């Protein structure tokens, strides 16, 4: 198989912690010597993924170990130099309770002079450094269940991948041997076949659980889809309601403007009214003008109102009639 990033990633996906799996991929990497830089870079990008478990990272370090040790034996120092550049970053990731095994591997490299003392010290400093805290990620309540299911699914896939890899290796060895003469004696062969059968049943159980988890995710996605559709319908209803109010407001504004324009042309036809303070002031002036001064007779003023009736004093009319009669008699006497 020719070298490519996709091919190498696929091999890293199938990597297990067995010696056979590690040696097989290590030989493939060393065979493609001119791609040593690409190999180290792809390996680093793969091992530093957050989804990679500590156990898988340890297997990847064992792969690196086989590559650099074989490179030393085969006089291919470029692999050692290139992996030396990326190892500190790879060792800065979380290895959990597997740190002692990683530290033991570094001690082996130091003892066998694979890397210099300074290079090993730099690697150990990265391993012992406190891992950077993960940034907290806010997950919406509606997505929490789906997120939990996907986390569970990823774990199941990691476990199943290791089992499938192991089953593939064992099947190739005991079910499809290239040379039947290499098969072990019958009792051992039967034991291996029984183990292979058990491993196959485990893989089936793993795949069934993965399938069940996928169905749960699909159900949650359907519920989420229905929730979104219902929400969009509610949004449409709200928009229609708001538009109706906006249209009503526009019509009311137009009616008020028309009414104001008509009212402005008829302002002169309406009588004016005094305010309460002006009316009180006018009343005071009338009282002052009606007060007797120097024997003069106060003038009569009448304030008209729709609810006011005017009554004339009958005695006042009678007095005026008597005065007229006396003057008539006096004029006759003179004549």
Please give a structural write-up.
It is a single chain. By secondary structure, the protein is an all-alpha fold. Among the domains are: 5-136, Serine Threonine Protein Phosphatase 5, Tetratricopeptide repeat (Alpha Horseshoe), CATH 1.25.40.90; 156-243. The chain contains eleven helices and no strands. It has helices spanning 5-14, 19-31, 36-47, 54-73, 77-91, 99-111, 117-128, 141-174, 186-265, 276-289, 314-334. α1 crosses α3, α2 (19-31) packs across α4 and α4 runs antiparallel to α5. The termini are far apart. Residues 293-314 have low confidence and may be disordered.
List the helices and strands and how they pair.
Blueprint: H1 5-14, H2 19-31, H3 36-47, H4 54-73, H5 77-91, H6 99-111, H7 117-128, H8 141-174, H9 186-265, H10 276-289, H11 314-334
CATH fold label of one domain? Serine Threonine Protein Phosphatase 5, Tetratricopeptide repeat
Mean pLDDT, rounded to whole units?
81
Radius of gyration in whole Å, from Cα? 53 Å
In terms of per-residue confidence, which ranges show pLDDT below 50 for 5 or more consecutive residues?
293-314
Order of helices and strands: HHHHHHHHHHH
Our estimate of the beta-strand percent is under 5%
Question: What is the CA–CA distance across the termini?
Answer: 164 Å
CATH class term of one domain:
Mainly Alpha
Give the second-level CATH assignment, the architecture of one domain.
Answer: Alpha Horseshoe
Helix fraction bin: over 70%
Tell the overall outline: elongated
* Main sheet: strands, sense, barrel: none
């Amino acid at each position: 198989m020719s070298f490519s990033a996709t091919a190498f990633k696929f091999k890293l996906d199938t990597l297990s912690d067995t010696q056979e799996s590690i040696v097989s991929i290590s030989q493939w990497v060393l065979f493609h010597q001119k791609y040593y830089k690409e190999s180290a870079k792809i390996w680093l990008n793969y091992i530093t993924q957050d989804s990679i478990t500590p156990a898988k990272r340890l297997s990847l370090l064992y792969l690196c170990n086989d590559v650099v040790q074989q490179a030393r034996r085969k006089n291919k120092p470029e692999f050692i130099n290139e992996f030396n550049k990326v190892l500190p970053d790879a060792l800065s990731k979380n290895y959990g309770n597997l740190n002692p095994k990683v530290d033991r591997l570094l001690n082996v490299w130091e003892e066998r002079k694979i890397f210099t003392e300074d290079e090993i010290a730099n690697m150990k400093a990265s391993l012992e450094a406190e891992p950077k805290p993960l940034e907290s990620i806010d997950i919406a309540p509606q997505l929490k269940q789906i997120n939990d299911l996907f986390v569970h699914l990823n774990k199941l896939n990691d476990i199943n991948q290791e089992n499938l890899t192991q089953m593939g290796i064992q099947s190739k060895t005991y079910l499809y041997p290239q040379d039947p003469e290499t098969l072990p004696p019958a009792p051992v062969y039967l034991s291996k076949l029984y183990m292979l059968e058990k491993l196959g049943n485990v893989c089936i159980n793993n795949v069934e659980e993965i399938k069940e988890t996928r169905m749960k995710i699909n159900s949650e996605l359907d519920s989420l889809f229905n929730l979104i559709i219902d929400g969009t319908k509610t949004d449409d209803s709200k928009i229609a309601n708001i538009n109706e109010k906006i249209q009503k407001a526009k019509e009311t504004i137009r009616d008020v403007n028309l009414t104001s324009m008509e009212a402005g042309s008829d302002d002169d036809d309406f009588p004016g009214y005094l305010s309460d303070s002006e009316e009180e002031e006018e009343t005071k002036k009338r009282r002052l003008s009606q007060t007797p001064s120097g024997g003069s007779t106060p003038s009569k003023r009448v304030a008209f109102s729709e609810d006011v009736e005017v009554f004339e004093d009958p005695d006042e009319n009678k007095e005026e009639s008597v005065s007229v009669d006396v003057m008539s008699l006096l004029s006759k006497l003179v004549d």
